[in-house]
Amino acid sequence: xxxxxxxxxxxxxxxxxxxxxxxxxxxxxxxxxxxxxxxxxxxxxxxxxxxxxxxxxxxxxxxxxxxxxxxxxxxxxxxxxxxxxxxxxxxxxxxxxxxxxxxxxxxxxxxxxxxxxxxxxxxxxxxxxxxxxxxxxxxxxxxxxxxxxxxxxxxxxxxxxxxxxxxxxxxxxxxxxxxxxxxxxxxxxxxxxxxxxxxxxxxxxxxxxxxxxxxxxxxxxxxxxxxxxxxxxxxxxxxxxxxxxxxxxxxxxxxxxxxxxxxxxxxxxxxxxxxxxxxxxxxxxxxxxxxxxxxxxxxxxxxxxxxxxxxxxxxxxxxxxxxxxxxxxxxxxxxxxxxxxxxxxxxxxxxxxxxxxxxxxxxxxxxxxxxxxxxxxxxxxxxxxxxxxxxxxxxxxxxxxxxxxxxxxxxxxxxxxxxxxxxxxxxxxxxxxxxxxxxxxxx
Length: 443
Description:
The chain is an alpha+beta fold. The chain is built from 13 helices and 20 strands. Helix content is 37%, strand content 27%.
């Protein structure tokens, strides 16, 4: 944990240095596309009223460069072929730099795979001076008993969700409150270490420095959920190409995140196999003619498949839209059933508001919201990312939710465990407590 704490603090310092220089880049490494946005920060960081800690500031920013390229070498949201992914990242970053007419050295990246897993932590300390100070916040965060999540996994996010002073609870920022005891509830998100290391290696090979890392499920929720949904409780379903990210928010904090290894590319693969066509042709058919609800009209609507196989008969085949929907619907239902199982395991039905927001490129299939309402619950809507100043019109669709959310994450970071000056001897709180317990039992 000590190494992780130091590396996260180093990334925070790099992010602040990039913001002081005025320019940083956003990199969304997805299965179907890699998007790069170049941000220019205009104004100084201001103190946020409902925030906590030194980084809870707001900074005015503007998108001055944007580029996307087809993702290569990424499967299920994780890097599969290193050289291909490196080439795709270089292509996207260079195109965005050319549009912005500026060179960037630091990137803040997000990805959707790596098997995210959520933990709920709790900690409490006695207040020495009777009033909560910055040091007390650091102490109570360090007092959380970190679970043994096993070898080969790292903490990606560690958000303090709720603070309590004595019997009073629900504080977002407890500093200055008078009491005898301070308690905290924290959400911890862990991911597979090799996935992070592969991404770090690719970014290093592109002569860039990693100044921040985030989960796509988290940043998609930041961009797609409106303020009331984040406050009252909502789930964001980010349906990407190779993975579907699920995040749950309440009181403006993420309290759960998970990923299903199914996405829009699996629907495309089913069309390619069912109709015996190449994957690019299947993607075009899905985009133009796809759907999940068949009507009487669809039997008579014929789709020209086309192709370049050289066989005249095969290249001029036609299928009805009903046949296409019959191929697509079972896979879409499977994805939604997987999401339903994850939401049930997370206890989503216990939240006061059970709003579900669908976003991501695969959420644009016609009729998906109606099918999702039957499988997931009645309160389903399609979400688009917030409008960001300078964002090109082509990058305002649901497919860019994680990219826009990463911009908001860069400019308005939520405080995490490593944003506080925790004493060095308190980093591995778990091992310290274990040692104390052992001494009590054995002496």
